[in-house]
Design brief:
With about 525 residues, this protein is of the alpha/beta class. About 30% of the residues lie in helices and about 20% in strands. The protein has 16 helices and 21 strands. Strands 4-5-6-8-10-11-13-15-16-17-18-19-20-21 form a 14-stranded parallel β-sheet, sandwiched between helices. Strands 2-1-3 form a 3-stranded mixed β-sheet. Strands 7-9 form a two-stranded parallel sheet. Helix 11 (about 370-375) links the parallel strand 16 and strand 17 (about 390-395). It is globular, with a radius of gyration of 33 Å. It starts with a strand and ends with a helix. The model is unreliable at about 25-55, about 60-95 and about 340-345 (pLDDT under 50). It holds the Pfam family F-box. It comes from Punica granatum (Pomegranate).
C-alpha cells in the first residue's frame, strides 16, 4: 500500500528528515503536539499503518504553496514543515477509515445546515457549484439554493455577444435541470445576454416553484420579448424588468401578491401599463424609468401604493396620482428639458397647487428639473393647503433663476414639519442674468420660522446673490438647525465661506460645514444626513 503525505518543506534536507521519521514508525515531533495528540489523528493513523505492514511505502510530495483550511486543527508545525493531508490510494477499508477521520476534522462541514445555506447564498452561482468538491456533505448542496443569480460573473463579458449568450444560456439550462426545491429569487443581469427563445421555458419552470422575486435585465440595445409564461408567476412579490417588451394577455388576472415593481426602458402600451398597475392590489412601490415614449398619459389606480418614482418620463404629459396614500414621490426629468417646460408637460406638472393637492400624505419628495415646469404656472407665496407630513425635501434648482428660488421659498413656507432639506444646483438652460438677485431678497425679507428644520445640504453653489440670500434666509429662520453642509468645489479658505460663517443664525447650535464633493460617499453622506433630522 502507498501512503502519500502532502507537505510544504523548506528544502531536501527537511523532506529527508520527515521521510526518515515516518519510515522509522515514529510520530514525528515536527507534526505532533505533545499536549494534545488527538488533534493529530491523521499522523498517528499513518504510523499505525506502517507498523502493521513494513511493505507499505510512504511518498513525500512537496507543495509549492500551502493554504491551511480552517477546521483541520493545529498540528504544531516546526522545522518549516506543514502537514496538510493524507491520501490513501489503495485499500478500501483503510480509505474509509481515513475518510471518516477527515470528515471529523472538517469543521466547515459540521456547520448547521442553515449556515451552510447562508454561505452558499453569498457566493456567485459559479463558485457555489464548485463547493461540491469540498466534501460529501457539500456535494450538490447548491442544488437547493433558493436564490439563483446569473450575472456578469457567470459568463465573460469580454467575448462577443453571441458567445456570451451561448455560454450563459447553457449555464442557466444546466442549473435549472439539476436544481431541486423552491426558487424564491431568480435574476438574469448580463451586459451581453438576450434569450428570446429560452426565456419562455425558464419562466414556465419558475412559475411552478413559488417564485417570489424576478429580475430580468437584458443586454443594451436588445429588447427581450417576455412571453405569457411571465404572467403565470402568481406568487411574485418583487418584479424588476429592464429592456423588455411586455404584452399583457387578455386572460391576465393580475399579480395578487406583488408589492414592488420596477420597469426600466420597457416597451408596453398605455392601456397595458395602467391595467398592469390596476391588477396589483397590494402594490406598495413602483419605479418607472424611461418607459415607452408612446405613453403620454398615466392614471394610477393603486390603493396601497406608498412610493412612486418617475425617472426620465418627460413624455408623460398627464399624470394623475389616483393613489392618495403616497408618502414618497420622486420625479426626475432629463437635463435637456427646455426653459419653458411646456413642450414636455401640461397642467399635470406645471400647476404647483394641483400637484400637491394630489399628495396629501407626502413625507419624502425628490424633484429634478421639475421646477422649470412649476415656474410656468402660478407661483403662490404659500400653498393653500400646507404639506403637514413632508419631512424630507430634495430639490434640483437653478440658483440663477429667481422663479425657481421663489418656488423653493414657497415650499419652505408650506411645510411646517420639514426636517431635512437638500438643494442641488442644476445647470442653467439659458444665459444667466448678471443682475439676478438685485432687489429679490428685499421683496422676500419677511421672516418665516422653519420650526422643525434640523439639517440642510446645498450642493454646487457658486456664491451668487440669490444663493447667499437663500442661505441667509434658512440660517436666520431655523431655530433647531444642527448642521448646514456646503458641498462644492469652493475651497474652505475662500471668501464665500468666510461670508457664510458671519451670517447670523437663529440656532445657537447650527454649524456650517464645508465639504469637497470629491470626498463625499453618497450613501454614507445620506445616512449621516438622515440621522441628523430624525428624532
Amino acid at each position: 500500500m502507498e501512503v502519500t503525505v502532502y507537505c510544504s518543506v523548506s528544502g531536501p534536507s527537511a523532506a529527508d528528515k520527515l521521510l526518515a521519521e515516518l519510515e522509522a514508525g515514529a510520530v514525528p515531533k515536527s507534526f505532533c503536539s505533545s499536549r494534545d495528540r488527538s488533534q493529530n489523528g491523521m499522523v498517528m493513523h499513518a504510523v499505525e499503518l506502517m507498523r502493521e505492514s513494513r511493505k507499505d511505502r510512504i511518498v513525500v510530495r512537496q507543495l509549492k504553496s500551502v493554504r491551511l483550511v480552517e477546521g483541520v486543527g493545529n498540528l504544531g508545525v516546526t522545522d518549516s514543515c506543514r502537514l496538510i493531508d493524507f491520501l490513501l490510494c489503495k485499500g478500501n477499508k483503510r480509505a474509509r477509515m481515513t475518510s471518516q477521520t477527515e470528515d471529523k476534522a472538517d469543521r466547515l462541514s459540521e456547520l448547521p445546515e442553515h449556515l451552510i445555506d447562508h454561505i452558499l447564498s453569498l457566493l456567485p452561482i459559479k463558485d457555489a457549484v464548485k463547493t461540491s468538491m469540498l466534501s460529501r456533505k457539500w456535494r450538490y448542496r447548491w442544488t437547493t439554493l433558493p436564490e439563483l443569480v446569473f450575472d456578469d460573473l457567470c459568463a465573460p463579458t469580454s467575448s462577443d455577444a453571441q458567445s456570451s449568450n451561448s455560454v450563459l444560456g447553457k449555464i442557466i439550462n444546466d442549473v435549472l435541470l439539476i436544481h431541486t426545491g423552491p426558487v424564491r429569487k431568480f435574476v438574469i443581469s448580463h451586459k451581453k445576454f438576450h434569450a428570446d427563445a429560452e426565456i419562455g421555458r425558464w419562466l414556465y419552470y419558475l412559475s411552478r416553484v413559488s417564485l417570489k422575486v424576478l429580475v430580468l435585465n437584458f443586454s443594451v440595445g436588445h429588447c427581450c420579448k417576455t412571453l405569457s409564461s411571465l404572467f403565470s408567476c402568481q406568487h411574485l412579490v418583487n418584479l424588476k424588468l429592464s429592456r423588455c417588451s411586455v404584452n399583457l394577455p387578455s386572460t391576465f388576472g393580475g399579480f395578487k401578491h406583488l408589492k414592488r415593481m420596477e420597469l426600466s426602458l420597457c416597451s408596453l402600451s398605455q392601456d397595458g401599463l395602467e391595467r398592469l398597475i390596476m391588477s396589483c392590489p397590494l402594490l406598495e412601490k413602483m419605479i418607472l424609468k424611461s418607459v415607452d415614449w408612446h405613453i403620454s398619459r398615466l392614471h394610477i389606480t393603486a390603493p396601497k401604493l406608498r412610493c412612486l418614482i418617475l425617472i426620465g418620463t418627460f413624455n408623460l404629459k398627464d399624470v394623475r396620482f389616483g393613489a392618495n396614500r403616497l408618502t414618497e414621490v420622486g420625479v426626475c426629468f432629463p437635463k435637456d428639458i427646455n426653459e419653458s417646460g411646456r413642450g414636455y408637460v401640461n397642467q399635470s406638472y406645471s400647476n404647483l397647487v394641483d400637484f400637491f393637492d394630489q399628495l396629501p400624505l407626502i413625507a419624502v419628495l425628490q424633484v429634478r428639473n421639475l421646477l422649470k415646469c412649476w415656474s410656468c404656472g402660478d407661483m403662490p407665496e404659500k400653498l393653500p393647503s400646507p404639506c403637514l407630513y413632508l419631512r424630507t425635501l430634495r430639490v434640483y434648482v437653478d440658483f440663477g433663476s429667481e422663479k425657481e428660488i421663489s418656488i423653493v421659498l414657497c415650499l419652505l413656507r408650506s411645510c411646517p414639519e420639514l426636517r431635512g432639506l437638500q438643494l442641488k444646483a442644476c445647470p442653467s438652460s439659458g444665459q444667466r442674468n448678471a443682475d439676478a438677485g438685485y432687489g429679490f431678497w428685499e421683496r422676500h425679507r419677511s421672516p418665516h420660522p422653519l420650526l422643525q428644520l434640523r439639517a440642510v445640504a446645498i450642493f454646487g453653489i457658486s456664491g451668487s446673490r440669490l444663493e447667499l440670500g437663500l442661505i441667509r434666509f434658512v440660517l436666520g429662520n431655523s431655530p433647531l438647525l444642527k448642521k448646514m453642509f456646503i458641498v462644492g468645489p469652493v475651497p474652505s479658505t475662500s471668501q464665500l465661506l468666510k461670508d457664510l460663517l458671519q451670517i447670523e443664525r437663529a440656532s445657537p447650535h447650527a454649524q456650517v460645514v464645508d465639504l469637497d464633493a470629491k470626498d463625499i460617499i453618497p450613501d454614507k453622506f445620506f445616512r449621516t444626513f438622515l440621522s441628523l433630522h430624525e428624532d
